[in-house]
Write a structure and sequence with these properties.
This protein is mainly alpha-helical. The protein has a domain at 118-153. The chain is built from 10 helices and 3 strands. The longest helix is centred in the first third of the chain and has 25 residues, at 3-27.
């Protein structure tokens, strides 16, 4: 293979990867390859640019709130990859989620933090029983730095900020949640709203 052929092969592989990444994102919101092609033709955009154009259109105008939420979610991820602010995208995704709950007849929600990573519980337990880091790593099959990190954090996701902790037990009406918007508490917030059913309030 000549140097020119190698460069061409690399470019083709990069284009293929870009196409697959764009399609994986768009399929999550019900968009097929035909729509990607149609969005790409007018301005000879790249697949990434065409996907961003489609996500923006869906986020702004889709009737289905779940599709809008997912579009905002992917726009937030794309912004973070470019080191751009993502908070507004995340906030709009949260609003779509809350409005979806409201339309479904759910009146109350509470902040749900991600559950601790399951293997971390075993690491913490072994640590409390007096095992050292190397012994825990051998027992659990994870590297020592992973064990140390999970002992330190007790398996909690560090992206769940103090605001999520403060609100984690509070019950909000949908209207309160939309008005106060405690979520997202930051660009990388991983907490979410958990719907409360009438039976949960009895």
């Amino acid at each position: 293979m000549t140097e020119a052929q190698a460069v061409e092969a690399e470019q083709l592989w990069a284009s293929h990867r870009e196409r697959q990444q764009a399609l994986a994102t768009l399929r999550a919101i019900g968009i097929d390859e035909g729509e990607l092609e149609a969005a790409r033709e007018p301005g000879a955009r790249s697949d990434s640019d065409a996907a961003m154009s489609i996500l923006t259109r869906v986020a702004e105008s889709a009737q289905n709130l779940q599709r809008r939420k997912m579009a905002f979610h992917f726009l937030a991820i794309a912004a973070e990859r470019r080191n751009q602010p993502s908070h507004e995208y995340r906030a709009n995704a949260v609003k779509c989620e809350l409005l979806h709950y409201k339309n479904s007849g759910i009146a109350f929600v509470t902040v749900s933090k991600p559950r601790p990573w399951a293997p971390a519980a075993q690491m913490v337990q072994l640590h409390e029983e007096g095992y050292d880091t190397d012994a825990i790593a051998t027992t659990t099959g994870y590297f020592a730095p992973t064990v140390e990190r999970n002992i330190r954090t007790r398996g909690e996701d560090l992206r769940a900020g103090p605001q999520c902790e403060m609100y984690s037990e509070k019950i909000f009406s949908i209207e309160e949640a939309l008005r106060e918007m405690p979520l997202p508490c930051g660009d990388r917030c991983v907490c979410s709203w958990h719907p409360i059913l009438p039976s949960d309030l009895r």
